[in-house]
């Protein structure tokens, strides 16, 4: 198979021929029809993720495609099925999985991190009966591929963890793929959304996604501007980018007893946070890490009903040969980039 590969962290991203994967007894191999370009892949390439232990490595963790091979112990899937997966693939047997919290599985695997990922013609997925999700015939693979990380992650962060309610103010810091998804989902939930970014182009996309108020973080203190726009601060604030600056700004954007949700991955090292404000205003600091396969149904129904439009967030489609260059320059093109092998 063809796959985008790196031999050194931060090194060249080459398209080369590699052996096709084979399924574990409990797994499947998926022929990749579309895979998303995500900042998490950039973090992995840079060496920020401890799960990448062996090089060479193939990145990519948002995917949709067709089942090409099935392990002997898989019961619910067969060759030819149209599927997608959450980027956190659960074991189905640990205490977290037994509690229905597969997104924090104790023995989770993640394509593109714990093993070779989806910037390739084929990708192997373990524990298929726990992790695969049917892609409806009327849904494009490029739409389904964007669900596994950024859209499903944003859905759970906004609806389940942040618990955004109609009429509340939601501030979204970082209007990349996760941030734009969060804006669309919060808007559909009836919230009033403030989009925060340093890019005018990204803020234009945020308006298309449903944001009604905008803060250009390069023009002054972002948290001050959010508090002024919302007359006291957001009820929910989401760091969808992941940096010490955006995490602190998200917390400082909140009104008293507000809820901060950290979604964007933070690079290694210390992340100083305004804990005095957290204590004085009784703020809640929450982490959100993907969404389990069994929880996809309500989100999929909203997409099929036309309430949510993840396809509108895709601004560029490229081939596998261009994926390495696109990963190296991630953030230079607003919106979601989709790779179609």
From TrEMBL:
Gene3D superfamilies: Medium-chain alcohol dehydrogenases, catalytic domain. InterPro entries: ADH-like_C (IPR013149), ADH-like_N (IPR013154), ADH_Zn_CS (IPR002328), ER (IPR020843), GroES-like_sf (IPR011032), NAD(P)-bd_dom_sf (IPR036291), Zn_alcohol_dh (IPR050129). Its EC number is 1.1.1.1. PROSITE patterns: ADH_ZINC. One of its GO terms (molecular function) is zinc ion binding. SUPFAM superfamilies: GroES-like (SSF50129), NAD(P)-binding Rossmann-fold domains (SSF51735). Its cofactor is Zn(2+). Residues 10-340 form the Enoyl reductase (ER) domain. Keywords: Metal-binding, Oxidoreductase, Zinc. It is an enzyme of class 1 (oxidoreductase). The keyword ATP-binding does not apply. It comes from the Bacteria. Belongs to the zinc-containing alcohol dehydrogenase family. This is Alcohol dehydrogenase.
């Amino acid at each position: 198979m063809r796959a985008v590969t790196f031999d050194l962290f931060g090194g060249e991203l080459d398209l080369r021929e590699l052996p096709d994967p084979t399924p574990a007894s409990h797994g499947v191999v998926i022929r990749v029809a579309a895979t998303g370009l995500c900042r998490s892949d950039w973090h992995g390439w840079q060496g920020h993720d401890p799960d990448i232990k062996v090089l060479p490595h193939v990145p990519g963790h948002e995917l949709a495609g067709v089942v090409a091979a099935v392990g002997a112990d898989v019961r619910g899937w067969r060759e030819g099925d149209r599927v997608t997966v959450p980027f956190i693939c659960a074991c189905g047997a640990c205490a977290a999985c037994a509690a229905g919290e597969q997104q924090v599985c104790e023995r989770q695997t993640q394509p593109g991190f714990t093993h070779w990922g989806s910037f390739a013609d084929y990708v192997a997925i373990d524990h298929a009966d726990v992790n695969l999700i049917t892609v409806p015939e009327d849904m494009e693979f490029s739409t389904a591929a964007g669900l596994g990380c950024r859209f499903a992650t944003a859905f759970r962060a906004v609806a389940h963890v942040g618990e955004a309610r109609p009429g509340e103010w939601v501030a979204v810091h970082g209007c990349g793929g996760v941030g734009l998804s969060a804006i669309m989902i919060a808007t559909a939930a009836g919230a009033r959304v403030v989009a925060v970014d340093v890019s005018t182009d990204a803020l234009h996309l945020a308006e298309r996604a449903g944001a009604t108020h905008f803060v250009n973080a390069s023009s002054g203190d972002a948290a001050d501007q959010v508090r002024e726009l919302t007359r006291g601060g957001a009820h929910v604030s989401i760091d969808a980018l992941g940096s010490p600056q955006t995490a602190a700004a998200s917390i400082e954007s909140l009104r008293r007893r507000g809820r901060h949700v950290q979604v964007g991955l933070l690079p290694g090292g210390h992340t100083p946070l305004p804990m005095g404000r957290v204590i004085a205003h009784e703020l809640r600091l929450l982490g959100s890490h993907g969404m389990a396969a069994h929880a996809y149904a309500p989100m999929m129904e909203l997409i099929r009903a036309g309430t949510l439009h993840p396809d509108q967030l895709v601004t560029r489609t490229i081939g596998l040969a261009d994926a390495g260059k696109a990963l190296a320059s991630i953030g230079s093109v607003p919106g979601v980039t989709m790779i179609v092998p």
